[in-house]
Amino acid sequence: MSQGEGKPAQVAANTLRGGHFRYYDFVMAAFVAIILLSNVLGAGKVSQIWLPVYNDYWPFGAGILFFPVSYVIGDVLTEVYGYARARRVIWAGTGAVLFMALMSWVVVALPPAPSWGNQAAYETIFGQVPRIVLASVCAFWAGEFVNSYVLARMKIWTGGRMLWSRTIGSTIAGEGIDSLIFYPLAFLGAEGWTTALVIQVLFTQWALKVAWEVILTPVTYLVVGFLKRREGVDVFDEGTDFTPFATRV
Questions:
Q1: Mean pLDDT on 40-54
Q2: Distances from the Cα of 207 to the Cαs of 166, 171, 224, in angstroms?
Q3: What is the pTM of this model?
Q4: What tens digit of pLDDT does each residue of 177-234 get?
Q5: What H or E segment, with its residue span, contains residue 242?
Q6: Dihedral, 81, 247, 164, 61 alpha carbons, nearest 10
Q7: The CA-based dihedral angle spanning residues 24, 205, 243, 90, taken in that order and rounded to the nearest 10 degrees
Q8: Kind of pairing, strands 233-236 and 9-12?
């Protein structure tokens, strides 16, 4: 389905209900993989980077290397396939994170064999703090839906022009909601976390995540252009039901 010279045809999202796309499943798999990796590999480690401006090291959560990429993929999903298909992927990611949290709790709770001496290290790496898990899931769910909704609406407002304004604008909104939910819910009142520190980390992480989106904008352009040409459509969410509480497309 395309216009002349390989240009993707502009179509309303609700006219593609039930349609199949060549690369949609692969993009969904990449999204879920990034979400799981950011929670397993990055969430528990604090790293640091040298900042010449401050002449000192600045600590940061290692998850920031992975998690913002999920917003880039979320932008690609909404821009190429429309809000409804992005919504389906967000629910898939939410289910995957919840299942991972359950499995982590079960495996850590299993009694270790007497000859196996790595239980303490295993608990440190894979142990789940219920409050942080709840905060992470709620923040991810709300932030991703805000990101997808804002991008879909902006695409209609801009007539499909200025992709950079949609990807960056939606990330500012989505990552903002994510940070506003996660850091207070996970750390406010926790031992070692003052209100001032929570606010400082909240805005620092938000700014860094948005900066990642800006840096990756050329990559987003390349991926979006490739997928639109190969799928042969340019989806606009006109007449779309934007409720987050559905999975049909």
A1: 71
A2: 17, 10, 24
A3: 0.88
A4: 999 999 999 889 888 889 998 898 888 889 988 999 999 999 999 999 999 999 998 9
A5: none
A6: -130
A7: 30
A8: parallel
